[in-house]
Design a protein that fits this description.
Blueprint lengths: L10 H11 L1 H44 L3 H13 L5 H11 L6 H12 L5 H17 L3 H13 L5 H8 L1
């Protein structure tokens, strides 16, 4: 009995036997990992292509604006806002307001609502509120503008000082 040598399987042999026993489980896990990676890559590609399309629209609207074709420019800027792009929607709203492309103040307030409903950081939302408050004051809705300024001040935002100056 002393001469019997019991061979312990080495690590690679143990791994091979485990894989053979649970072959289906490993195939399912590898397939799942592959599908998730392909999904992530596709989503990333899709988002990049959408951002490229929206940036091209923004440039096109700017070209129309510079050639004094305000109607086409306004339409494209509104499309960009409705796409709810985090970057270009706010820029488009600014262009519409700065260049007085939309005459209907109710329509501009609707555009503000669309931009406000985009999932943004708190400080970005506060700057949108600040811009909306300025616009409300411009169209003689001072009380509503003042409420927005008070919200910014009470939130202790980085825009608090500017909101205080405007509210005076």
């Amino acid at each position: 009995m002393e001469n019997e040598i019991v061979e312990k399987p080495n690590l690679t042999d143990r791994i091979i036997t485990i894989v053979k026993k649970r072959k289906k489980l490993f195939i399912v896990l590898l397939s799942l990992v592959f599908v998730v990676l392909v999904g992530i890559l596709f989503l990333n590609y899709y988002q990049n292509s959408e951002n490229t399309k929206i940036s091209e629209k923004y440039i096109k609207a700017g070209i129309f604006l510079s050639t004094k074709d305000k109607e086409k420019s306004r339409i494209i800027y509104k499309e960009i806002i409705s796409s709810k792009n985090k970057f270009y929607s706010l820029l488009s709203l600014n262009k519409i307001i700065e260049n007085d492309l939309e005459k209907d103040s109710n329509e501009i307030l609707k555009l503000f609502e669309v931009v406000e409903n985009i999932n943004l950081k708190k400080e970005h939302k506060n700057i949108i509120k600040l811009k909306k408050a300025l616009y409300l004051k411009k169209i003689s809705k001072t009380e509503e503008g003042q409420k927005l300024l008070q919200e910014i001040i009470s939130n202790n935002s980085t825009w608090k000082e500017i909101a205080l100056e405007i509210s005076e």
